[in-house]
Amino acid sequence: MQLSNPSNMKVFYNKQQTVSSFIKNSPSAAKPKLVVQSWKNLGYPVEIMKVRPSSVDELCLAHNPSYVRGILKGQIKNGFDNKNKEIAKSLLWTTGSFVSAATYAYQHRESTFSPTSGFHHAHYDQAAGFCTFSGLTIAAILLNQRFGAKKIGILDLDSHSGDGTDQTLYKTGHENLVAHYSLGYHDVTIYNNEEWLNRLSDLICERFSTCEILFYQAGVDCHIDDPEVDRGQFTTEQIALRDKIVYKTCKELGLPVVTNLAGGYQKPIEKVVELHNLAAIAFNEVN
Ligand SMILES: [Zn+2]
Fold first, then answer.
1. If you measure from the C-alpha of residue 121 to the centroid of ligand 1, how many angstroms do you get, rounded to a whole number?
2. How far is the CA of 5 from the centre of ligand 1 (A)?
3. How would DSSP label each residue in 41-75?
């Protein structure tokens, strides 16, 4: 099927995705705002799209209802290892951003962006590694329930494994709805990452050609200089190539892509923002 030709980058962003009082303690909480500004500064046409925050019922599609309520009431620790209610409220907006971006991409067959992180380690009833709610699993289930989507791809190129994605899909009986590839499960290091990149286009075709939409976790903690790097260990040039291969291959397959940011922990944060620019550059070069 043909993709709609994007005239601009549709970015689903609302300032309530970030918590101003929290930014002082965690530079990564400021990332969405900085990345959106940086994408605009690149000179590409960026269109800020409306985000509808997720409802409690939507969060419960992928999580235990008492876990969801406990997080929102500040009774259970979120993925940032605290019980801050303001942060918990912002999570309705980060999940909402991804779900809104995925819904638009599915309905209009056009690629979209969600400047969000913190999904793939979230388990059915447990937060971990900066992740509280599984925006990926929630969006997949919603596309299935609302629009009858039958096959959704998740290409997770964060350096770490999408264990929460797998666990929430399994716990809710949706493992057959999603084709999931997570770099974190594969032995990709500085010694064989070039070979892996050479095969990436084939990998996407093999795994996702029958999917109706692809969720792309364009994580940059797989960069060789990242303090949390595990799998990947890519150079800046290799991450640029990675993003270009993803968008080019998906365009050839007619597959709309929903991109989010996932991990990236270098300091100062400008280094991380520059790496996230590579996705915008690749997208605009390909489209
Ligand atoms: Zn990571």
1. 9
2. 31
3. HTT--EEEEPPPPPPHHHHTTTS-HHHHHHHHTT-
C-beta pairs of 16-22 under 8 Å, 24+ apart in sequence:
16/53, 16/89, 16/90, 16/93, 17/51, 17/90, 17/93, 17/94, 17/97, 17/115, 17/116, 18/90, 19/84, 19/86, 19/87, 19/90, 21/86, 22/80, 22/84, 22/86, 22/87, 22/90
**In the prediction, which pLDDT does 18 show?**
80
* 132-180 per-position pLDDT tens digit: 999 999 999 999 999 999 999 999 999 999 999 999 999 999 999 999 9
CA distance 95 to 41: 25
Q: Could you tell me the two tokens for 31?
A: 């990332």
Tens-place pLDDT, residues 186-201: 999 999 999 999 999 9
Instruction: Please tell me the distance between residue 99's alpha carbon and the centre of ligand 1 in angstroms.
Output: 20
Q: CATH top-level class for 9-286?
A: alpha beta
Domain definitions of the chain by residue range: 9-286
Average pLDDT for runs of 10 along the chain of length 287: 74 88 62 94 96 98 98 94 90 97 98 96 95 97 98 98 98 98 98 98 98 98 98 98 98 98 94 98 96
DSSP single-letter state for residue 218: -
Q: Which residue has the tokens 């969405």?
A: 32
Q: Which two tokens stand for residue 203?
A: 């990998």
69 CA to centre of ligand 1 in angstroms: 26
